[in-house]
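Dear colleague,

Following up on yesterday's call, I've attached the two folding results inline so they're easy to grep. Please treat them as preliminary; we haven't cross-checked anything against experimental data yet. The first protein's sequence and structure tokens come first.
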Amino acid sequence: MNPVLTDFCKQLISIQQADVDSAGIYVEIGEELGVFLAQYSDAAWASWGDYDARQLERDADLAGCPSLLEGLPHFNAKKWHAGLYDDRPKSLKQTVESLGLVWRGTYHRGIDDARNVASILKKMLG
């Protein structure tokens, strides 16, 4: 839909135009992910809040195909953390640091945010 990254987007998530130009399309990535997930009968996914789950649905609608993670249970790690620690929701980075974990990567870059959410989940699961 927007094949050219804005300067704001490049700065926010630290990806370059070449990253976008060489990336697969939504349907292709969905097929690759489906092959990977077929190995796991009990797979689930989590995100920091519900934004990512809603965005995947919107992207699927635009692409005219199923959501990348359709059928998998989704856990809102932000709500889970707030309930477990009886704490008001914080930003992802604040939560990582409040748990004594080390922040990794660039804030708002998908792969880095995913790794940091995973570290929070591991800590909460003991």
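Below is the second protein, in the same order (sequence, then structure):
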Amino acid sequence: MGTKEVGRQVMRELMGDAFLEAKDKTRNNFNAVIHEYAEEVCFGRVWARTGIDRKQRSILNIAMLTALNRPAQLRSHLEGALTNGCT
């Protein structure tokens, strides 16, 4: 399985099928490259890496997104963190 497919699987496990379906509906010629980058690099490489578990990775992501004032991304990563066992 390629990194893009691995990324989509990780996204599905973290965010659920409804998130992926909604994300796919927003794909167009302008943002397709960003969608592919997120699937292949952010989730297919970074989130799929070994070394720390998904719960710890979620905590780190939430901390970084909070520090960077990224509320849109924070919302989806909070949902993923709950899936990963964060409370």
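For the second protein, one point worth flagging: Residues 52-87 form one domain.

Best wishes,
A.L.
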